[in-house]
Amino acid sequence: MGSTGETLRNLLTLAWLLPLIGFLVEIYALCWTHRLSKAPAYLAVGCIAAGFVCSFTALMTWGVQTDWVVFQSTHHDEHHEGDHHGEQHHADEHDAETAHVAEPAKTDEHHKHAEKAVASAPADALAATHADHAAEHGDGHSEEHAAKPTVFAGTFYNLGSFGPLKISLDWYIDSLTLVMFTMVTFIATCIHIFAMGYMQDELTEDYVDHEVHLANHEHFHRPGRFYRFFSFLSLFCFSMLGLVLAGNIFQVFIFWELVGVCSYLLIGFYVERKSASTAANKAFIMNRVGDFGFLIGLMIIWTSLGTFQFFDSVDAEGHTSQVGLFHLIRGTTGEMQLSADGQQVLLQNEVGELLTAGENLRSIPYWLLVTAGLGIFAGCIGKSAQFPLQTWLPDAMEGPTPVSALVHSATMVAAGVYLAGRFYPVFTPEVLLVIAYIGCITLFLAATIAVVATDIKKVLAYSTISQLGYMMLGIGVGGWGAGLFHLVTHAFFKSLLFLCSGSVIAGCHHEQDMRKMGGLWKKMPITAATMLVGVIAIAGLAIPGSQAVLGETFAFSGFHSKDAIVATALAYTKLNAVHGLLFLAPLVTAGITAFYMFRLWFMTFAGAPQDEHVYDHAHENPAVMTGPLLVLSLLAATCAIGGESGPLYKLLALSEAVPAGASTAPSSPVTIVLPTHGQVHAVHATAGKFALLAAGLGTLVAYLLYCRKALNPAEIGRQFSGVYGFLVDKWRFDELYDFLFVKPAHSVGRWCQGFDKVVLDGVLHGASSLVMLVSTWDRWFDERMIDGLVNLVGQVTGQAGRSLRVVQTGHLRQYVMWIAVGVVVLFAALFTALPK
Amino acid sequence: MTLEALLFYLFAAIACGSALAVVLTDNVVRMAFWLVMSLGAVASLFFLLEADFLGATQLLIYVGGTVVLLVFGVMLTATGPYVQIKTTPAEMFLGAGVGGLLLLVLASTVMGINWENDVAHALGAESEAALAADTTVDQSGTTGRPLGLAFVGVRPDAVGPDGAATRPGYLLPFEIVSVHLLVVLIGAAYLARAKRRVEPATDLLS
Amino acid sequence: MDTVGLNSYLLVAAMLFVCGVVCMAVKRNGIGILMGVELVLNGANLNLVAFARYTVLGLDGQVMALFVIVLAAAEAAIALAIALNFYNNHLTIDVDRGSELQG
């Protein structure tokens, strides 16, 4: 057996490429089969399911390799109060393991690719850097997650070298990659299977699109696009997996754009609908805005750091030929090394020494690093629909519901959060503050809009934005693990919720308005039950006091991850009192989230039917659609079991490259102290209580308003019509952008048009008139003078010829006579002209 | 007046008179007769000019060949026993006038040149000596052999002091003329071969 | 006039030449025109031989005259063939009937 890294690489590469193969076969081969064939769906499902098997095998391989370290840890509180001896022992274990992992990779001489298992420095070095923060708490918590992130990385293929910069196809595998792979492939498999049922009506030669009204008042007819849908889905999965596997930021960018293209294709799947094509364009253009920042970040990284790779590349002799981005910035300790004046970030090599260029230390200006971080994060803002660019995501509901599920859980929007997490070591605390505030604004804003939304999918869309805001907030306040933890749990329950909504929509014959539903749990019990699981998960409800009984809080996944974020935010605001909003907003929003999610469920499933027609025709869907719901609801409930001591969080935390607690540069205008894990744990219980209280309150209000009908929600809406209208109009962001960008662009366009029409056209018309004038005169000259001259010559010649032709009599004797006469005349002329 | 001068005047008169008669006669057959007379007289003049081979050739080819050919032509194209296509007096008069003028031009040119000096001067001093030498050589009755040799490229009559020929031979022109004659005779045979006589074209006869 | 010199021969040749030209000019009979040509050639031949006799040309003049005779024979043959063709086409030998070359 080769090294673990090689095994993991092979497995994940297989999982990554299978959907591509599926895509190619579906696009190039299966389109020749007739449109009624289900073969594309089977192929796509097979590919992605095989990918899941590979990913899961890789995860298991990892677990075996690390001796299931994620399950070894005992309960959270034991660590909290644990003795130093145990901690130290634990850290030693880590050392041994990493060395074990690193060994085969280095000795594998005939290994094709450069591969390296990177082990970070011993934990005590890390602890020393945190002494100032950790000392006051007096425990060894900084060591608990001072994990040595075990990373396997290497290069598939070198695309080219541009000076010092190498562009290559790399792979980078740590526990985050593995979790993402497993999560993405699993959810995608469920969604694929669900889509086989949902897209059933595309299996026809004559699909009638009821949303498209033609000029002759008929509906639009077209052939079904079953195979196209599944080929796009496969490409989407391939892009997302490639993004996760990518080992350098440039490769991430490539797949980033591929993901964007796929979302464009799928959102605009019903391309004949004006709203769908507009939504696809909007998604694509909004993402371009963010990607502009991404490109700027890329350029800064290229020029200042000279590498795109995350990891250190190793040459044939085993020496490090190029230090990767993370080590350049953070070294081995996770601390940035600043120059004396704090204006420069000194670059470090793979063993933590400062890099030199000749006499001077290699460095990058601090502000430039901030700019690069902000640029990359701008890309994440676009992709994850964060605050300024959030408007595309609700419109993206125009795509088929399985696409929405995929976009909202595992692929598109997850990519932004994933990148923010992956690129975390390069972000300075200032950037993290921006991330935190962006997330904070987004989560509150989206949640408020979701409260008044009536379209079942729109509610879920805004809840997605809100939850993404939570993730960004978590990452921004230093809770790297918390943010990504929420990403994974959210992926499960949000895909579940979307598939449930898809099931409802399919069951109600494409009715999406919640006001026309109600009482549906009798008609579709499986959907109702599974959706309730999802709703509880996202609302973050738990059973208070269960901790005492069960040893840990009994709750669904959303509680644990949201709890982790809120706790981090609380610890953060305790350290940085100015940024108190960063705790209050998520807390309040937790209540709002619970409110609108239960509102959705009550409006849809509980109460009396609002629309008899819809109710009468509603039906439960076949097993191909409910099956994925059941599987997903199981995972949505249990995937985060154990909370922050559970396997999922610990697995993710293994990859945390930068320890919590890094502070800003002394010269920075803002001083930020990130909380350590210990500080977070200290406030965890408090935060959990607050969050649970908020969620419970939100649930209660929803129950009263929409189930017991204690108050008429419509009446409240009328009384607060100003706020209500503002929220219904989505905070008028579309109008704002219309006013800020579209209108000015239009006026500039009009002005340009005016300029074009008056000035440029005037110049052109003047020039053309002049040319006309000149050419008229030229024509006159040409016709009269030139042609006249030529005609004159011709006429004279013709005349001469006509007059001379009488000489040509054809009589032989005359010619002879002429010769004689000519001789005589010639002689006479000669003798008269030249007398001797 | 020497015998040579007498003979010259006699044959010159015959030649010129017969030529005039050719012009003035309308009957083709008679014209042929006068032509024979004129050509014979010219052959006699060749003998007087010490060109014996040439004179013989003239008699053989012209009188014996060409004129016979012409007579055959007359016979083949004759539409009646005595072919007479009259010339109008005006044309006769015009031809006479032009001919007289041409004769005047030629005669005045011939008479206007002093051949003894001018030509010698034009040919150069060296040629003058050669001319003097040539005129002294009696060549009567001996031109056949030099001509034949000249045609095969040897010039015994023009040998310089060093024994090399001063003038070129005529082998190549001779060969060319031979081939030319052959080609012409074949072509003539082709042109004159018996063809189906076309019906009289009305537009040409009308 | 007591001695017969070059000039005398040249005058006779000129007379023959002019007679030939006038013959060509006035005869409507094609055969007559051929005869005129023969006369012209004879005049030229007489010139050549006279020059051969009285100038440095010598034998070269006679060679030229021989060539002329040969060419005249060839010309006679071909001209006669043309005359026959003309006669075949026009049923007469009157050259005034043939005016196809009229411009």
Biggest interface reads: B-C, 97 and 77 residues
> What is the CATH topology classification name of chain C?
Helix Hairpins
How much of the polypeptide of chain C forms β-strand, as a percent range?
under 5%
**Largest sheet of chain B, described in full?**
none
CATH architecture of chain C: Orthogonal Bundle
Pick out the low-confidence regions of chain C.
none
Give the helix/strand class of chain B.
mainly alpha
- What string gives the helices and strands of chain C in order? HHH
Mean pLDDT of chain C: 85
- Number of domain modules of chain C: 1
Query: What is the CATH homologous superfamily assignment of the largest domain in chain B?
Result: NADH-ubiquinone/plastoquinone oxidoreductase chain 6, subunit NuoJ
Architecture of the largest domain in chain B, CATH level 2?
A: Up-down Bundle
Structural write-up:
The complex is a heterotrimer of chains A (836), B (206) and C (103). In chain A, 66% of the residues lie in helices and 6% in strands. Chain A has 32 helices and 12 strands. In chain A, the strands form 5 sheets. Chain A has a 3-stranded antiparallel beta sheet. Chain A is elongated and about 150 Å long. The termini of chain A are far apart. Chain B has 206 residues and is mainly alpha-helical. Chain B folds into 2 domains: 1-104, Four Helix Bundle (Hemerythrin (Met), subunit A) (Up-down Bundle), CATH 1.20.120; 142-194, no CATH class. Chain B has helices at residues 3-24, 28-48, 52-77, 89-112, 115-123, 125-136, 144-151, 171-191, 202-205. The N and C termini of chain B lie far apart (60 Å). The longest helix of chain C has 32 residues, at 59-90. The model of chain C has no long low-confidence stretch (mean pLDDT 85). At the B-C interface, helix 1, helix 2, helix 3, helix 4 and helix 5 of B face helix 1, helix 2 and helix 3 of C.
Summarize the SSE layout with pairings.
The complex is a heterotrimer of chains A (836), B (206) and C (103).
Chain A: H1 4-28, H2 39-65, H3 69-72, H4 76-81, H5 84-107, E1 115-118, H6 123-129, H7 131-137, H8 141-144, E2 151-162, E3 165-173, H9 175-198, E4 207-213, E5 219-222, H10 226-245, H11 249-267, H12 274-305, E6 313-314, E7 320-322, H13 325-330, E8 337-338, E9 344-346, E10 356-357, E11 360-361, E12 363-365, H14 366-383, H15 392-395, H16 401-409, H17 412-422, H18 429-452, H19 456-476, H20 480-507, H21 525-539, H22 546-550, H23 557-575, H24 581-605, H25 612-617, H26 623-638, H27 647-653, H28 677-707, H29 713-719, H30 721-728, H31 733-804, H32 812-833
Antiparallel strand pairs in A: 1-2, 2-3, 4-5, 6-7, 8-9, 9-12, 10-11
Helix pairs in contact in A: 1-2, 1-10, 2-9, 2-10, 9-10, 9-16, 9-20, 9-26, 10-11, 11-12, 12-14, 14-17, 14-18, 16-20, 17-19, 17-20, 18-19, 18-24, 19-20, 19-23, 19-24, 20-21, 20-23, 20-26, 20-27, 21-24, 21-26, 23-24, 23-28, 24-28, 29-30
Chain B: H1 3-24, H2 28-48, H3 52-77, H4 89-112, H5 115-123, H6 125-136, H7 144-151, H8 171-191, H9 202-205
Helix pairs in contact in B: 1-2, 2-3
Chain C: H1 6-26, H2 30-54, H3 59-90
Helix pairs in contact in C: 1-2, 2-3
